[in-house]
Specification:
The chain is α/β, with parallel strands linked by helices and 511 residues long. It has 2 domains: 34-230 and 244-385, no CATH class; 397-507. It has helices at 3-8, 10-28, 38-52, 68-77, 83-110, 113-125, 127-132, 139-159, 162-178, 184-187, 201-226, 237-245, 249-252, 260-276, 278-286, 295-315, 325-328, 332-345, 349-372, 381-389, 397-407, 423-432, 452-458; strands at residues 413-418, 438-443, 463-467, 487-494, 501-507. It has a 5-stranded mixed beta sheet, sandwiched between helices. Helix 9 (162-178) runs parallel beside helix 11 (201-226), helix 14 crosses helix 16 (295-315) and helix 15 (278-286) packs across helix 18 (332-345). The relative contact order is 0.09.
Amino acid sequence: MGFSSLAKYKIPIIFCLFLLFLYLASRLLTISQLPLFTDEAIYVRWAQIAKNDANWRFISLTDGKQPLFIWFVIVAMKFINDPLVAARVVSVFAGIGTSIGLFFVTRQLFRNYWIGIISASLYVIYSFALVYDRMALYDGLVGTFFIWGLYMAILLVRTRRLDVALIAGMVNGAATLNKTPGFFNIYLLPVSILLLNLRTKNERMRTLVKWAGLAMLVAVMTYGIYSLLRLSPFFHIITQKNALFVYPFSQWIQHPFQSFFGNLFAGLQDWFFRYMTISFAVLIIWAFFIDKKFLKEKLLLFLWFFIPFIALAFFGNRLYPRYIFFMTLPLLPLIAYTLIALKERIQNKILFSIVVTLGLFLQLHSSFLVLFNFPYATIPYSDVSQYNNDWPSGTGIKESVAFFEQQAQDQTIFVATQGTFGLMPYAYEIYLGEHPNVEIKGYWPIGKNVPSEVVATSEKMPTYFVFYQGCAPCPAAGLAPLSWGNATPVLQIPKFAPNVYLSVYQISPGK
């Protein structure tokens, strides 16, 4: 590219650099804003173990989770000291990949790089992305592979080239190594036939056969790469884990509509509109009516969202808002298309500015709250509750880690936790697992009496018990049972939700 070409694209280049700055500022400057979440603690601890012992590189399969995200976290941990920040940085870079992917998808479909740039810009301010680009969860990377899978599907149907099919197979294979929704990249391939240009009958058959052969190659490569996980003896657990969140077909066929309407209206529909906002939804619909151009391309984007969305409504068993994040991403190019089309039709700059402001205001307001006042963010309350307000959040972890480090400066201490998997004891194993003076062990269930092992340990060294959630004999979430008479509170951190705490009790010798 010569200097003349660079000069031609000077404004887009400057705009893209500004977008990158805005993206990194919005994600990195607030990357530690949210406390450690339960699932994050699990993934970070897995990565720590796998980093230190190559025999455990497939450790995530022990809980039915594919390992690719964990592998990326291992790499990040080699450069970043804080384990949680290292894991969250993986999601930050995944978001950059998603934004770039949206640019290429949009430009390839609509032949307009400004629509692509606007599509990438929308991702930067999208509150759904703003939440998950800063968390050490699989879902940000799921979105990255989903968008790049869409891009490769578009290229494959338009070029019908072997090299494109090979790259698509590798992208989709990597998607399945990350999380099961990666298989949607294969299931949705037939939708891309919408873009085939079939003029004559002979050409139609020849083109379809060639595309079908290449699509089959993509599918074979995808399943071949996924089969690498069969090297682990824990591979079968993936199916067992998936069955907890999605009904297997053998169960679903017995009650095909039992969960559909509840999932669609009470869950998915509410989550979708809270994250996407009504104004964005209007702009999506408007894309189909503002003009008759690129109708097939618009329909492709919508179906790439709609088919997984309806599938999850039918088969979903135990669902969370993050499960629909990747599905919503193909809708952003439709919003970008509408905004550019409006610019061409509304000549009055003031009027156009008002229309754009109305279209973006709710999303910008939601993102502002996500960044600066998360407890009151206008996103699904289940996310606000889990990630910040209620017991699954790690509010109080930093304070309690500092407390234990102080107590263990010149003596050995024992830290017992309420729970054996998840936030407890993994949060303390992450930060204190290598401390020579700290011993950690989880206990579950919690009864009316202090576990005898904990009482016995308290006779040998300072012993502490950490509570963070409710239990049958507990008076409130994060408080010890009243019958634990030899438990003295030494640290109590209230969470945002009422009557929810993270509490540290010192256990005295005795019954």
